[in-house]
Amino acid sequence: MTSHAPPGTAPDGALRELARRNGIATDYTTDRGRRITVPSDTLVAVLAACGVDAADERAARDALAGGHGPAAGRLLPPCTVVRAGSPAEVPLPPGARAHVALEDGGRAEVSAPLPPGRHVLHVRAGTREESAPLLAVPDRIPVPERRDWGFLVQLYSVLSRRSWGMGDLGDLAELAAWSGRALGAGFVQLGPLHAMEPGGLPDPSPYRPSSRRFTDPMHVRVAAVPEYRELSGPARELADSCAARARELNDRVLRGETLIDRETVRALKHQALRLVHAVPLAPARRAAFEAFTAREGQDLTDFATWCALAEVHGGAWRSWPAALRDPRSAAVAAAREELADAVGFHRWLAWITDEQLAAAQRAAGEAGMGIGLVHDLAVGVAPEGADAWALQHCLADGMSVGAPPDDFNPHGQDWGQPPWRPDALAAEGYRPLAALLRAGMRHSGALRVDHVMGLFRLWWVPEGRPPSEGTYVRYDAEAMLGVLLLEAHRAGVQVIGEDLGTVEAGVREELAARGVLGTSVQRFEYLGGSEGRHGPLPAAEWRTNCLATLTTHDLPTTAAWLSGEHVDLRSRLGLLTRPETEEKEEAAAERDGWLAELRREGLLPDPDGEVVALHRFLARTPSRLLGVWLPDATGDRRPQNLPGTATVHPNWRLPVADPDGRPVPLDDLPGHPRVQAIARVFTADEPRRPTH
User: Fold this and answer.
1) pLDDT at 619 over 50
2) DSSP of 402-464
3) Which pLDDT score, from 0 to 100, does residue 408 have?
4) Looking at the structure, do residues 44 and 89 belong to the same domain, yes or no?
5) What radius of gyration, in Å, describes the C-alpha atoms of the chain?
């Protein structure tokens, strides 16, 4: 294998060893099998982001010789992770005595099998004493016992005639109740509902949120807040005016006259909700609010404080007055008191949003759904948002998550999101990770983890450099995955890992062994894998423990893929990297190969058309979960998101529509013939493979 070095000096021995000790790759292999050497300046920058000075050879050698960071000289590692139910193997200093303080208040010997939980390890060696978190995590979580199918949706796109310009949590409850009762669906998988920054949304992507810890209140159905009914006088008149303007906007969206306008929706909802917030809470409601704030604790305080400060100083906290950039500063404490009304409002917003999310999950359960809501955990957060401010001590400053150059993107990718610092997460006992996982699992039956490979390693890109000059940084996968499984065990939910794209050897196998479901998308399922594809993967050979779908929010809809319109769209937008004829020939060959596979399976011709036939193919796979992209069920031809087109395509702003681009409201889905035809695929006595 040939080694190639990108621009920059090749690292010397000390720098390479220091990088290795910190889990930083000094070289990597591309998707084409080329070995690339990571330049020295990249390693120096990444080490600095991890708190290690390697600015020159002497500094690197000093760091090697003396150790570094808060773990140096400790009796215990910052955090220990063991498998629950098995004897713990904890390295202790010679002659040390230790015991474990269990989460439930009990006590256990270090060598005893431990119950799942967040425990504390205590050790004494001579006159020194130390304690540190000890996490006992499940060996695996159970996979679904029964086969289920459900819709995959971006909630904003599913409007009803009662919405305020975009789909809301009331619409979600209705969608879950209808599809569960009438169609026998077992789940609704959502795009991220994470909190976005207040005010304007220059990037409306739900995968670049301000906070993954809380849900965005723009999803609230205002009229469903109990105190809304108690408005009177001028407040009622103003709230009714907001409602009328929002419904007028909603009607225009459903008539196809305008796209979803999140900023206007947010402004109208916030104006109305500030009026509702002024209504005094009844005693039971006040008790529920106080219980919520107590449960959410400091995380909620930080989030509400950031929102209040952002309303005054703007959403980019790095440009705030210096004293306000530290969430624990005296200046922030003083500002919190000064802005107490705004902080209280944002606490209340988080509560009513959480209430409506819980109601949607209850509606799913009451409709007979085995899973109910499947929430989506984005891979990261915006660098200037609430989480990046509150958790800056756990995030790598000056670094961004991305991907190395590959066939999909020869220049690599920079997602503009700061990565976790492995050392800082360990020092915190992985509590920040556990908190956001717990939040995503609270009102759900499953959690989809975007780019689940990030539990093992992430591609870090130093600020100001191209993605090609990044490198992989490895995480403690036993700890990261263990925390995920522990929280899933506590919540009693399934976990779906989005494991599409380049996945290093052994990762899918490890995830499967621990009970994490994978993701299989028809467009990527080929004999021989992504390299040297030899035709569509037969239905019987698909993975059992996975969520199987035809497409995703980032890919063409099935109707557009069948017609070849996705190539026409990319051509109009100037996105093609090869001659249009070549792109069209390749797209046609891919489609024809799949249609031939459907004929081999006896699924064509189909009186309901090729889209339905492809769903019949999905039903013949052994996959435990089967997902239907809702726009596929209505015949929509437009992609919800076309990566790399933020200024030329209406990403994240399209309502679900019919083949002619006419919006289809939620109210019309029950009688929609295409929706009914696809639903029958999963409810009729279709020939299916055993699920083992």
Assistant:
1) yes
2) EE---SS-TT-EE---PPBPHHHHHHTTTHHHHHHHHHHHHT-SEEEETTGGGGTEEEEEETT
3) 65
4) no
5) 26
Which H or E element spans position 180? helix 169-183
Residues 58 and 91 in one domain: no
Residue (of 343, 327, 318) closest to 393 by Cα position: 327
Task: Provide the whole-model pTM.
Answer: 0.94
**How many residues comprise the chain?**
692
Closest CA to 45 of 427, 399, 547, 416: 399
Nearest to 686 by CA among 618, 599, 632, 591: 618
Boundary residue ending a domain (137, 166, 182): 137
CA pair distance 188, 202, nearest whole angstrom: 28
Question: Looking at the domain assignment, is residue 473 inside a domain?
Answer: no
Residue with tokens 């705030």: 320
Identity of residue 584: K
Positive or negative, the CA dihedral 213, 217, 219, 222 is positive
Give the domain range for residue 23: 3-66
pLDDT at 686: 44
Q: Which residue has the tokens 């492809």?
A: 614
Residues 84 and 60 grouped into a single domain: no
d(CA 439, CA 214): 7
Other CB atoms closer than 10 Å to residue 643's CB: what's the count? 15
Confidence of residue 198 (pLDDT cuts 50, 70, 90): confident
- The whole-number pLDDT of residue 111 equals 87
Number of structural domains, the chain?
2
525 assigned to some structural domain: no
Separation of alpha carbons 482 and 430, rounded Å: 10
Domain contains 60: yes
Residue 176 has pLDDT above 80, yes or no: yes
Residues 46 and 93 in one domain: no
Whether residues 7 and 58 share a domain: the answer is: yes
Q: Does residue 53 share a domain with residue 94?
A: no
pLDDT tens across 465-476, in order? 999 999 999 999
